[in-house]
């Protein structure tokens, strides 16, 4: 065998000889043609380079011009913002003009792909800027009368001025529809820009746009319905009275959290005219002399409850149901009859609002967004004893804190209101803030926008909602780590689903946390049939297996079981069931939809999804670009911080 070096030398020599021997006239033509292509490419480069530079310069100018618009809006410099929008659009049009002069590049291999992507991105930019102009003019119409007064706040406005702002919002809300239409056209154009085959710089920009654009779409899609209901909810043109519930989600209940404090709030033209709060037990004591109302069966079985009180009224995970149940008990036990709606808020949401206004001091105790939950819990459970405060007054600190917080929010300058609206919107999405109103038109909009905390009652799609009820487990939900894992696979012409709920109790035995006892309910499509289960328990401190009950609630099939998790341990509840034919028919039509809902008040659990389709999948939506498709299986791992609707389609 010859050495590799000798072999290599022989090959190189042979190639050299072969090349000289096999040169043919046709290769001369090839060489000449290549030379001509190079000359043409050089000529085209000389022609296109100046135009490319002009396009880049115009694009940079558009970016620079557009960068100042948000700052001008937040400073209420509406005329400047409008002029900046016009300048930005002119720069984009200049870019489009320069790009149009290079249309010959569309036919070039590889370069043409980049060029077409740039053309589409210019359209996206132009439509987006025009949508921005509509938004600027809307904000100008709403707030311009007050813009010249500097950092004006709602607290410094007269009731008539607040009413004028709400009237402007109601009257001008439909003007946003033009912006909505332009943003949707921009989104459609962006969708046709390829994700692959682009140069890295361009690919990164496209990827970022596609990640951010859904939030823009959602914001504008919600702005129009919001403009219709915000004035009404805030008491324009008529005053509104609300039953206020503080739901402690460290002691989770199906409708958000244990109702430890309630209140009555009156609003007029965006102004809180009055707000009073009280310990829930002070109200429930009035029920002792009233006829007995039988509580839900699990409360009787696990808590030995023989009466149903206002504090336990949020047994339904459907907030419209919970709100009306709470209102019933509140009025039955002597509360005001003049109520227009129910507003529930968790400590999680209050902490976010404190983050907007800064630390709040009450009786020398400082509450921040980071310590609020723990500090408040200590004061109402332990601190009041050391301070010598009577037990029935231990929650008065909540009323004082709420009053200060509301005052600080109303004193926020209008320039900060965009942050306030974003915070409120996020807490509504995450179900840490819940609203029900006794007005069908407004309530229907809340439900349609998923701001009502309502259970999705559709049964022609797949659905999951895991609901826990803390049963005398102190404030242990604060230390519980949850994971919900859902798998769907075809089986015998149908669909088999497996849901694994993992509970990790990271707490200890102390005054605040203990073993976690929960009555777990899982809401699934009506007609689902339980095949198998594991992890259900008969009672706490026992390994005796429990039974999984099958119930019917809210138009859904419900699987319910008791579960107990000791501190420092992890445990699972696993349910395997057959999905109904209504869900199977989705796949037969080439589409699968899953509504995965979050329980009100629950801190976001981790979520894992794996769905195997009858044939190869084409797409998956609703999973933040983190979904993965491999042949016929789609997977996703994320956080259930809001309700998700996940849609998959199969290849036709």
Please give the structural blueprint.
Layout: H1 4-21, H2 25-67, H3 69-74, H4 78-100, H5 111-147, H6 159-172, H7 176-191, H8 200-233, E1 240-248, E2 258-268, E3 271-279, H9 280-284, H10 297-303, H11 319-332, E4 341-345, H12 347-357, E5 360-362, E6 365-367, H13 372-386, H14 396-410, H15 417-429, E7 433-437, H16 440-448, E8 462-467, E9 480-491, E10 494-505, E11 516-524, E12 529-534, E13 549-553, E14 556-565, E15 570-578, H17 581-588, E16 591-597, E17 606-612, E18 617-621, E19 628-630, E20 633-639, E21 644-650
Parallel strand pairs: 1-4, 8-16, 9-17
Antiparallel strand pairs: 1-2, 2-3, 4-7, 5-6, 8-11, 9-10, 10-15, 11-14, 12-15, 13-14, 16-21, 17-20, 18-21, 19-20
Helix pairs in contact: 2-4, 4-5, 5-6, 5-7, 6-8, 7-8, 12-15
Low-confidence stretches: 1-41
Major sheet size, sense and barrel closure: 7 strands, mixed
What multimeric state do the chains show?
Answer: single chain
Count of the separate structural domains? 3
Beta-strand percentage? 15-25%
Helix percentage range? 40-55%
Task: Compute the average pLDDT.
Answer: 87
The CATH class designation of the largest domain is Alpha Beta
Rg from C-alpha positions? Answer: 31 Å
Q: What structural class results from the helix and strand content? A: alpha+beta
Q: So what's the overall shape?
A: globular
CATH topology-level name of the largest domain: Aminopeptidase
Secondary structure tally: strands: 21
CATH architecture of the largest domain: 3-Layer(aba) Sandwich
In short:
With 652 residues, the chain is an alpha+beta fold.
Question: Any overview of this molecule?
Answer:
The strands form 4 sheets. A 7-stranded mixed β-sheet has the order 13-14-11-8-16-21-18. A 7-stranded mixed β-sheet has the order 12-15-10-9-17-20-19, with helices on one face. The chain has 652 residues and is an alpha+beta fold. The chain has 3 domains: 172 residues, no CATH class; 209 residues, 3-Layer(aba) Sandwich (Aminopeptidase); 189 residues, Immunoglobulin-like (Sandwich), CATH 2.60.40. Helices cover 44% and strands 23% of the residues. The longest helix has 43 residues.
